[in-house]
Amino acid sequence: MVDVGKWPIFALCSEEERKSVRQAYIFGSSGNEVLYVTENDEVFVLGTNCSGCLGTGDIQSIIEPRRLETLCGKQLTCVSFGNGPHIVVITTEGEVYSWGHNAYCQLGNGTTNPGLLPCLVTTNLVNKQATAVACGSHHSMVLTSDGEVYSWGYNNSGQVGSGSTANQPVPRRVTSCLNKKYVISIACGQLSSTAVTDKGEVYVWGYSGNGQLGLGNSCNLQTPCKVMALQGVRVLRVVCGNAHTLVLTDEGVLYVWGANSYGQLGTGNKSNQSYPVPVIINKERVMEIAACHSAHISAAKTQSGQVYMWGQCRGQSVVLPHLTHVTCTDDVFACFASPAVMWRLLSIEPDDHLTVSQSLKKEFDNPETADLKFLVDEKYIHVHKVLLRIRFLCL
């Protein structure tokens, strides 16, 4: 079981409170804010409450866990934060809630007023089911169950993908090259955005001063553009750091590009890279990649279960993948990153406690791992060829 006590903020909680945690998300410029969910689906927050990012209705710091009534009973599937900070969460029902800093419209409610309480984001999302969220410094992006991408907020470098640099006050679908594409994975750097389609294509837009768009130049883009250098490989997932990008292919190969002043690309040097380059980790297949826009650190888990990290590690630069003593990528950000935040919503229940049937159910219709899809009633169902073959042989 993952020990949330590895993150300093949880020192404010009692042992009993820590034991009740089922999901947790630590965020903020200093890692001093946390949102967590208990076993009975109650949502609590704790921390410095910068810009009202804890959603309690005020900006007072909280040293004892306080219940977030609006979200209690609503199961959370995904959380992300921006620098303000602002928070965007997605529930299992596909609802989108946001709160916190809003000077650049990053809450998607049509105003620039601070969001001191969680508010349901409805514009253009009423009949949509959100499945993933990604936040940049002051912009937000969600992925829906039908493979569409919606974005809003700060847009000085075109990171919203609207075709202009005007801030976007409410969610609008990112179209252009993505108009007829089915997107399966999204990520945001500080001022950039990335999307992966079910065909394994990678599209990028926004700021590229450090080469983080992977197009071989430093030109900003106001609409999505395909990364042609990845032609011939099928990408399954993307994650972004502050100004660097990592993608994982269906063959377990890791490609990286962007800023590299701390060695966060893992290429053995500190030179920025404007084209995707492969990073081989101990000649193993990579199963998971991790990064978040608030840090200059990267992590990966290999097929044998080993976890590697590289980049800015407690003030030091690690320029090649370094084998760690931890067992999950989440712990990399607790032990080595500054600040000690979380790169994703951490679910405490480990996979090794699941039965075989539960594990298979968890992966059913997962576009990130599937290698085949069927169109049924105008909706795609994602499946695995090997499981279909096993089922066929059992008939």
TrEMBL record:
Residue stretches making up the RCC1-like domain: 42-316
InterPro entries listed in its UniProt record: RCC1-like_dom, RCC1/BLIP-II, Reg_chr_condens, Signaling_Regulatory_Domain
Keywords: Repeat
RCC repeats: 94-146, 147-199, 200-251, 252-302
Domain of life: Eukaryota
Pfam families: WD40_RLD (PF25390)
Name this protein carries in UniProt: RCC1 and BTB domain-containing protein 2 isoform X2
Protein's organism: Microcaecilia unicolor
Source taxonomy: Eukaryota, Metazoa, Chordata, Craniata, Vertebrata
